[in-house]
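hiii so um. not sure if this is the right channel but i have a protein structure encoded as tokens and i wanna go backwards to a sequence. like what aa goes where. can anyone help
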């Protein structure tokens, strides 16, 4: 792969040439388009770790995405400085790479359903086990079927930014192909026909069967390397490794900080976890001890840890740049940095003390029920109207009014294709915020009435 092509400013779905150099570059425009999208705003009420938290300090998907984007901008700019010098790239600036990674990080969780990973699991469980939904999914084949059995927020995110936002535009938000490729950490379709591929980029799918053609356009534009002759699968865009690293740095470090604020960790425990991650801990000790409030001490440590891991991720990327461009490097950057053991310890502690905390598990379990039940109810409603029209049950003709026209079909006439009908419904449910999903569930089940 070649940097000049990888940094393409061509926009998916747009025939307009890239803009001339100005105060706002094409990649900065990508960032702005994501910020002003309704899907981005909805992340303020989507779970990061603690669902429906009443503590306003705790991160949501929105604040996590902003923080990951900040880390990504630093990583991308630092890499850009070295790449431009190494390859003598005259037409780009270091800030361009920073803007691409920042925009991709900003959108990296935009496809997550309500209640985080529990919501993803709920959709997969519904596709496998629901009385009606599983029978409907079983009628599909190949990637169309696997899109539901292995539902993936990353693939849903690609769908949101290229189709569901600004649906009247070809290419949705019409982001640059460089940003879209950097966004796609898993550049493959969902069904690989039983084949097994090593490497992190093949771990999950990055686009649905309905969006395969869009990603093919992106891959061809930026020059991604095809990995297989029989399946839609490519090597990662190099900057996708930085997007992944920024996300990993953010949640590993910040989940510990959130856990401290909620009382799951004491200050001495946080200090013990963060201390090995500091580049020169004894040099930081006087400054740390001058801070009186333990909360402020944790914030100071968090900033220093993030800076050190960014430095190590940068070195790892540049050491492996040739292999990355050739498609031979396919592991997360944080798996190769000197601080890997200490970073893994953060995850282990979070799993033991935060992710299994009663207030987390109890609400996620309820969210699991909400997401799967909404899908099961609405797929029957839409199918009833699709098959019987005006002869559908009064209940179906009433409940279908609760589904926006965008997720049913023109004039609320369900689309004929059974795969697309299911896909539109998962678009509808996965796009809900945590609070809206709970509210709608209560209304359709009769637990509460409008106005109560």
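sure thing!! here u go:
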């Amino acid at each position: 792969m070649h940097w000049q092509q990888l940094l393409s400013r061509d926009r998916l779905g747009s025939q307009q040439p890239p803009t001339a150099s100005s105060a706002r570059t094409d990649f900065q425009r990508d960032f702005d388009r994501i910020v002003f999208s309704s899907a981005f705003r909805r992340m303020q009420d989507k779970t990061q770790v603690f669902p429906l938290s009443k503590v306003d300090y705790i991160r949501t998907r929105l604040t996590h995405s902003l923080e990951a984007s900040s880390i990504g901008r630093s990583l991308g700019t630092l890499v850009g400085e070295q790449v431009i010098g190494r390859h003598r790239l005259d037409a780009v600036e270091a800030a361009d790479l920073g803007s691409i990674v920042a925009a991709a990080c900003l959108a990296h969780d935009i496809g997550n359903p309500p209640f985080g990973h529990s919501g993803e699991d709920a959709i997969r469980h519904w596709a496998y086990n629901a009385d009606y939904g599983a029978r409907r999914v079983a009628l599909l084949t190949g990637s169309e079927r696997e899109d539901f059995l292995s539902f993936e927020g990353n693939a849903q995110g690609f769908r949101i930014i290229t189709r569901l936002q600004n649906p009247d535009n070809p290419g949705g938000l019409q982001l640059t192909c460089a940003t879209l490729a950097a966004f796609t950490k898993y550049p493959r379709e969902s069904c690989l026909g039983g084949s097994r591929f090593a490497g992190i980029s093949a771990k999950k799918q990055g686009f649905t069967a309905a969006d395969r053609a869009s990603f093919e356009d992106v891959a061809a534009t930026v020059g991604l390397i095809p990995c297989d002759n029989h399946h839609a699968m490519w090597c990662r865009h190099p900057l996708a490794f930085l997007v992944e690293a920024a996300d990993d740095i953010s949640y590993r470090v910040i989940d510990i900080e959130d856990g401290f604020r909620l009382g799951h960790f004491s200050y001495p425990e946080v200090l013990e976890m963060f201390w090995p991650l500091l580049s020169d801990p004894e040099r930081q000790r006087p400054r740390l001890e001058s801070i009186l409030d333990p909360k402020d001490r944790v914030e100071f440590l968090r900033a220093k840890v993030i800076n050190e891991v960014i430095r190590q991720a940068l070195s790892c990327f540049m050491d492996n740049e040739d292999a990355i461009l050739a498609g031979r490097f396919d592991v997360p950057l944080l798996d190769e940095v000197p601080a890997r053991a200490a970073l893994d310890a953060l995850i282990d502690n979070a799993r033991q003390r935060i992710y299994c905390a009663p207030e987390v598990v109890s609400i996620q379990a309820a969210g699991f029920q909400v997401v799967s039940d909404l899908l099961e109810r609405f797929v029957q409603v839409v199918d009833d109207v699709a098959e019987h029209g005006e002869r559908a049950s009064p209940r179906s003709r009433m409940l279908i009014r609760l589904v926006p026209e965008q997720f049913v079909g023109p004039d609320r006439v369900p689309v004929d294709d059974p795969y697309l009908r299911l896909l539109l419904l998962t678009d509808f449910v996965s796009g809900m915020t945590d609070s809206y999903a709970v509210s709608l569930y209560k209304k359709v089940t009769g637990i509460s009435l409008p106005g109560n």
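oh and The CA atoms of residues 248 and 274 lie 15 Å apart.
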